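Backbone description:
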Amino acid sequence: MSSTAIATVTKMLESLPETAQAQVVEHLREYIEDLRDELEWDALFAKTQPQLVTAAKRAKQEIAEGRAKPLDENQL
């Protein structure tokens, strides 16, 4: 975030009563924490893409060769 954007947010916060400022800060903390979690999940998922592609290709090949069986949910 640019320093101009940070300054704008700071001015907006400063225009609020302290109790409202505290509420906004808490909401921002939660939002940023959720955003960080999503970014971490996206990064981890991206790392597994090659393995997922390989597994999907292997599954398609096994189906084509008749080596795959339908999933029996009762055996889970």
Observations:
- The CA atoms of residues 24 and 61 lie 53 Å apart.
- The chain has a mean pLDDT of 93.
- The radius of gyration is 24 Å.
- Residues 3-68 form one domain.
